Amino acid sequence: MRTTMARRAKAVPSDPREHARSIAEAVDEAWHGRYGGSRIEVPMSVVAALALVAREAPGPEQLDRLGEAAERLDHEGFGLLIQRLWCEFAALRPDLNPRTIHLWSWIDEEQDETVLRAIHAVGQAALRRGVFERFGPDGWGDTDLLGMLLQTMKSRGARNGIGQFLTPESVTLLLGRMNTPKEGQRVLEPCAGTGTMLLGAAQAMREDGLDPTTCEWWANDLDPLAAALCAVNLHLWGLGWRVVVGCGDGLLNDWMHEALRVRQVAIDEMERAWQVARQIAGVRRLLDLPHPEDPLSAHLRRAQPKPPPPPPPPAPASSTFDAEAVYRQARLF
Ligand SMILES: C[S@@+](CC[C@H](N)C(=O)[O-])C[C@H]1O[C@@H](n2cnc3c(N)ncnc32)[C@H](O)[C@@H]1O
Q1: Where is this region: Disordered (predicted)?
Q2: How many domains does the chain have?
Q3: Among 188, 159, 182, which Cα is nearest to 259's?
Q4: 265-285: pLDDT as tens digits
């Protein structure tokens, strides 16, 4: 049985696209209603982090526990939780990390109270609309939740300028069926938006019993936010490790070389960071140093529900006054 968060989630639309729309509208309202500001990549980053953790959670119980903890956290604690989720993603997918920077760079900046409260409100809105209700590899695996968010939150004028009108999943699936990639092929999308064309191609492959992770998936977009969302999507949709996402002019060829170069630098950097982390952990073990509590753990601990007070001890039986005996002996009536 799903726990509080899920029970309180409004009835979740069975159509994944309608569900995505419902989340996007609630998030848009929460962000602007709390004066979040013009940086729409921030609320998108919150939803992307929650969708990623829904995919990676080992099971619904762990997700429920996380949902409940997230619900209890205050705005500072919730900001730290989102920060931690992005760190986890960086460790899991260093190859995609540089492309997603547009989504998480705000984490390193000092946030004012109002923005932190808006971030918190966005998280609560997404959770209440059931972002965790679709979980595991298939959870958000056939829907462009992030594309829906981009289209909802970005102004029509800003999208008009670069023709950013994304193709719905039903159409990209049809196109995918008409030109299904073969295993091991390279698939290129130089103006990918949030990547729905690649989703359609991958879905069509799966329908034919083919494994899309055998393909090379190359995506690019001029808009860094769309490219960042696309990078997250390619992981959410389970397209595997042969994924390269660029951000440049798709009419020129050099985006591919640049994307590949940036990807390799990020993988090498992460490898070095792991080496240093392993050395530090080794030294700490050797010196038997205590592990200081990190700020997120401290917030989670403080947000734990207080255990109910112990029941009062039973009233001690009177050893000096035996009413029954007095009654029997005195025979007052
Ligand atoms: C009509 S949308 C289509 C996106 C995606 N192919 C789909 O079907 O959903 C066009 C996308 O191309 C991007 N774009 C426009 N000019 C571009 C260029 N010169 N190089 C790369 N991307 C470009 C826009 O940012 C937008 O995301």
Answers
A1: 1-20, 295-321
A2: 1
A3: 188
A4: 999 999 898 888 888 888 888
Quick check: is 280 in a domain? no
Tell me which amino acid residue 179 is: N
Question: In this structure, is residue 15 part of a structural domain?
Answer: yes
For ligand 1, whether the C-beta of 251 sits within 6 Å is yes
> Does the beta carbon of 165 sit less than 6 angstroms from any atom of ligand 1?
yes
Distance 58 CA to ligand 1 centre (A): 35
Asked if the structure places residue 301 within a domain, the reply is: no
Domain limits at 13? Answer: 4-153+167-270
Q: Which of 137, 97, 151 is nearest to 239 (CA)?
A: 137
Q: Both tokens of residue 132?
A: 């965790």
Tokens (6 digits) for 35 = 């004066």
Q: How remote is the CA of residue 223 from the centroid of ligand 1, in Å?
A: 8
Share of the chain above pLDDT 70, in %: 91
DSSP 149-213: HHHHHS-HHHHHHTT--PPPHHHHHHHHHHTPPPTT-EEEETT-TTSHHHHHHHHHHHHTT--GG
Give the contacts of 211 (CB within 8 A, at least 6 positions apart): 183, 205
Six token digits for residue 80: 């730290």
Pocket flag, ligand 1, residue 158 (CB < 6 Å): no
Contact 35, 114 (CB under 8 A): yes
Is 37 among the domain residues?
A: yes
